[in-house]
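Re: your question from the hallway

Yes, I did run it. Sequences:
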Amino acid sequence: GAVVSQHPSRVICKSGTSVKIECRSLDFQATTMFWYRQFPKQSLMLMATSNEGSKATYEQGVEKDKFLINHASLTLSTLTVTSAHPEDSSFYICSARDLRGEETQYFGPGTRLLVL
Amino acid sequence: AQSVTQLDSQVPVFEEAPVELRCNYSSSVSVYLFWYVQYPNQGLQLLLKYLSGSTLVKGINGFEAEFNKSQTSFHLRKPSVHISDTAEYFCAVSGGTSYGKLTFGQGTILTVHP
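Structure:
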């Protein structure tokens, strides 16, 4: 149980294009999902908290107009990197918290984004 | 604000030896504590967690950790490691006013040598 998937697993795009990453909880419902980015040899940095049916809450320093988050259902959140640039290249990981409120986040396998 | 410190960035160890990965946290309120493992180019897998109750928690793959409130520590241990345990390990804390947000330590790379 508690499986979270991400799609795509890796993506290469040209500078200036937008990229959408999907995060799905496969066997549980999640009112809250989190988006992280991880640079090489570094820890995970929380970008934003995504709540089903409401606006996402962004961490300080994260541009909400650049990283658009939509949490349309209890099992799906999407992160869109708009007008991507090479500095946006990173490993993006999502996590989901079970609706039943257990204090545990389950992580997706991550999406490797490379912007050329 | 909460913070997590993993004191060792890298821990090399020989196969079948015991290992301890250290984690200290700071928080003004009660917290929940977690250890995650990350294999190369993968997401994080939950090893174990402390929410309440017994301070010694057992997780998957033979790992265990002990919550020590007075020392604000949550060290991860395994009595005998395998080559397959080579990975990066993250300690994390949530709770209090963070509304479920996880704060991660810097990570410890465990390398198991034959």
